[in-house]
Amino acid sequence: MSAKNEPSSEAQLLKGAVKPTAITGLISIIVSAIFAGLPGFYGALLAQFIVVIFFAVTLGVSKISKDLDPLSTMGLALFSYTTKLLFVGLFLWAIPISLSVKPSTEPALESQQSCLL
Predict the structure, then answer these.
(1) Cα three-residue angle 12-16-21, rounded to 5 degrees
(2) How far is 71 from 44, CA to CA, in rounded Å?
(3) pTM strictly above 0.70
(4) What would the DSSP string read from start to end of the chain?
């Protein structure tokens, strides 16, 4: 097989990761919908969307930095990682605001103990 006919490493990674990601995402969406109802379904669907977008960004950065020197590749990888972290923070900040949900002020441990009593 010649080098032109070989799929790129990004294509191989995508091909190998699509099936497990889809299966895991589908299972998490179903389990969340069963245990948490419609909010769990929407939360798991949003989480799966974020995973797919972040994975696509990682593949894009990998493809862009394929021919760069190692220092530039590291800088680009760190920039994309930091950007993805900022977007996760924005998602976590924007979701309660858009849904008009007030965060609970009660500590989680106390609420679990009160359920057991």
Answers:
(1) 135
(2) 36
(3) no
(4) --TTTSPPHHHHHHHHHHHHHHHHHHHHHHHHHHHHHHHHHHHHHHHHHHHHHHHHHHHHHHHHGGGS-HHHHHHHHHHHHHHHHHHHHHHHHHHHHHHTPPPP-S-HHHHHHHHH-
Instruction: Give residue for tokens 């605001």.
Output: 97
pLDDT score, position 32:
92
Does the pLDDT at position 73 exceed 70? yes
Evaluate whether 97 touches 48 at the Cβ level (below 8 Å): no
Checking if the pLDDT of 3 tops 70, the result is no
User: For residue 29, which amino acid is it?
Assistant: I
Is there a contact between 28 and 22 (Cβ–Cβ < 8 Å)?
Answer: no
| 35-43, long-range: CB < 8 A, 24+ apart | none
Chain centroid, CA 81 distance in Å: 12
